[in-house]
Inverse folding.
């Protein structure tokens, strides 16, 4: 144990003295959540499927639907009136849907006639932690404001109300985004650095040097696991604190979230160990880590929910272990869905074990 | 012999398809000696040493250290052995004292900060304790490497090309350190391609070429066996001078414009000098020098060596 601690401390000192490494552990996640927080607190311009149920079927709801149809970024999907709006939302696993109530046209007509208490409202129902919800909100707000101004230049006579499914408890985009950032930070700090470290240790004969001491290969790996778990937990706590302070997040830090950090560190360290053992030098290591890490970064649901992506992308995403890490972390941090979290945790650990076995076989400290 | 620390017998390390990195090498190292494996790059020195360090598996033959088969039971002797590998590079972002503390713990040795500082002082890095290792010079890095290699106070020390690439002063400083380590009772196996280094430091030398030992003995024995005692150097005599000298029946060679006349028996020196004095030829200078391992190497291998590369 003392050898493991000695190696952890020595590796940690070197890591902490590397400005680049510290940037990716602490500054990078903060910068990401600040940038994305700014972007998604404002406007969005993503093309989106918009599910609308028109219970009114009146003159003004028809006009409103035709306006939506003419927006090029919107694919209008009409929910049949014989379907229960809320059941349909759950069955189709939607992130957001719009309900035009049966009295919409009547209320608009009354308002136009001068009734100051009347106004036509639509209902925006969904998960505010998703990018789709933010985008649809912008579209609905914009279209209703413009339609209102076209009908009467003075008082607004239309608007929208939002309703969040009870199970979600008032989450916003940053609640969705934070676990993704954590996943990204876990991956970049372990996969990228351990791939380069292994390649560097190989080319600079550090492994050969270590092989002359009493330190064993599994002890070296265990010390990296310990170090990165502690580092990433610290990074998670800092990122979470900043998110809470600036973006009023509702997600929670569950014990399972910390287990995910350890499991993620194990998975991506094992993956990095395998890649770093295969490549010949640190330059190739960087290229290989990028080749593996970049697709995962963008296609594992860190920045955008997978449900809003094309089907084939969603299929590809299932290949990436980061997808399961993100899904599991979101399940425990924002949905409080322990079963889903544990299923994803098992997948993460299982993939980690496979990479660990492969990496251990390929990695050699001695000449053959 | 019973007090041999290292014994190597018919050691072979072959790689497919037909590379014979080490091809039937045998030698032994008695206690408290400095033994040098001398040879050009690719001669098989490092492969031999790495087999003795438990880092490579031999194809055949035996290699024992303290009587222990290093292939089977290296763990039994690990704490008694120190190793400075070829092209040693310290961990960039650790300070020398931190590196020593770290390394000691990897050997399960409890070491205090003052112990670590004392070791750093011993290898001559007192002024560099607070510098990151990446900022050390080449010679200082090797000194740190030697500090790490003796952190466990080894009885047997393997130094694989410890001075390669260093400037002459740094090399000489390291020689002093190696001699000081030996004076404390440590047996040293040194690999080098510097002939002067092997001659200066070694009690015993084995010249390796293409995986085999081609000459073996103390520097003095090798010079006596393979070389002549003294050489008369006719500086700038050139090819014309060589022609004139050999015409008088004197054995000589020409090297870089100088004519070299070997004299094996000191009693012949006066006769040879008299003969040379009688020859009319242009020389810029004339002097005598004792033969060295360099001459032995040239005689045995048939080629000179510069920075580990054989001259064509």
């Amino acid at each position: 144990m003392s050898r493991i601690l000695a190696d952890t401390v020595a590796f940690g000192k070197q890591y902490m003295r590397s400005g680049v490494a510290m940037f990716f552990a602490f500054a990078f996640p903060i910068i990401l959540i600040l940038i994305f927080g700014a972007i998604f607190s404002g406007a969005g311009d993503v093309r989106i499927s918009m599910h609308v149920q028109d219970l009114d079927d009146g003159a003004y709801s028809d006009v409103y639907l035709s306006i939506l149809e003419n927006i090029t970024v919107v694919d209008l999907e009409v929910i049949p009136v014989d379907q229960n709006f809320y059941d349909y939302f759950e069955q189709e696993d939607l992130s957001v849907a719009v309900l035009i109530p049966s009295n919409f046209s009547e209320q608009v007509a009354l308002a136009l006639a001068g009734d100051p208490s009347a106004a036509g409202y639509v209902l925006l129902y969904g998960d505010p932690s998703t990018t789709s919800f933010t985008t649809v909100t912008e579209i609905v707000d914009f279209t209703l404001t413009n339609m209102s101004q076209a009908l009467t230049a003075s008082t607004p006579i239309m608007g929208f109300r939002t309703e969040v499914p009870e199970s979600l408890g008032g989450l916003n985009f940053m609640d969705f985004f934070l676990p993704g950032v954590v996943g990204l930070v876990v991956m970049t700090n372990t996969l990228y650095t351990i791939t380069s470290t292994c390649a560097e240790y190989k080319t600079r004969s550090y492994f050969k040097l270590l092989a002359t001491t009493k330190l064993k290969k599994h002890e070296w790996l265990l010390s990296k696991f310990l170090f990165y778990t502690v580092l990433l937990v610290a990074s998670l706590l800092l990122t979470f604190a900043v998110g809470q302070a600036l973006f009023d997040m509702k997600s929670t830090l569950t014990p399972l979230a910390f287990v995910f950090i350890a499991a993620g560190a194990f998975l991506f360290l094992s993956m990095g160990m395998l890649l770093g053992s295969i490549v010949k030098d640190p330059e190739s290591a960087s290229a290989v880590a990028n080749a593996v890490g970049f697709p995962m970064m963008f296609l594992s649901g860190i920045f955008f929910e997978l449900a809003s992506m094309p089907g084939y992308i969603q299929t590809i995403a299932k290949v990436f272990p980061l997808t399961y890490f993100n899904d599991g972390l979101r399940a425990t941090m924002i949905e409080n869905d322990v079963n889903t979290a544990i299923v994803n945790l098992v997948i993460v650990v299982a993939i980690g074990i496979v990479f660990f076995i492969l990496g251990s076989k390929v990695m050699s400290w001695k000449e053959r | 012999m019973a007090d041999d620390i290292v014994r190597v017998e018919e050691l072979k390390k072959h790689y497919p398809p037909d590379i014979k990195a080490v091809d039937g090498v045998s030698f032994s190292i008695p206690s408290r000696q400095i033994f040098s494996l001398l040879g050009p790059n690719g001669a098989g020195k490092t492969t031999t040493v790495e087999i003795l360090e438990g880092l490579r598996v031999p194809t055949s033959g035996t290699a024992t250290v303290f009587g222990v088969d290093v292939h089977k039971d290296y763990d039994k002797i690990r704490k008694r052995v120190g190793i400075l590998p070829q092209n040693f590079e310290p961990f960039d972002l650790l300070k020398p004292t931190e590196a020593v503390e770290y390394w000691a713990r990897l050997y399960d040795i409890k070491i205090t900060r003052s112990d670590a500082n004392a070791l750093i002082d011993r290898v001559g890095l007192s002024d560099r304790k607070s510098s990151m290792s990446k900022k050390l010079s080449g010679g200082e890095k090797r000194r740190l490497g030697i500090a790490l290699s003796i952190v466990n106070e080894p009885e047997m020390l393997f130094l694989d090309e410890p001075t390669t690439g260093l400037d002459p002063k740094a090399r000489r400083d390291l020689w002093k350190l190696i001699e000081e380590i030996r004076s404390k009772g440590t047996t040293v196996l040194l690999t080098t391609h510097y002939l002067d280094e092997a001659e200066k430091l070694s009690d015993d030398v084995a010249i390796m070429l293409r995986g085999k030992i081609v000459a073996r003995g103390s520097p003095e024995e090798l010079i006596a066996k393979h070389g002549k005692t003294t050489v008369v150097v006719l500086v700038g005599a050139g090819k014309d001078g060589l022609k004139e000298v050999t015409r008088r029946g004197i054995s000589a060679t020409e090297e870089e414009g100088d004519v070299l006349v070997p004299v094996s028996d000191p009693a012949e020196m006066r006769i040879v000098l008299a003969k040379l004095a009688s020859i009319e030829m242009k020389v810029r200078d004339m002097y005598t020098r004792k033969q060295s391992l360099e001459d032995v190497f040239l005689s045995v291998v048939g080629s000179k060596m510069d920075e580990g590369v054989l001259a064509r």
Observations:
- Residues 2-40+172-362 of chain A form one domain.
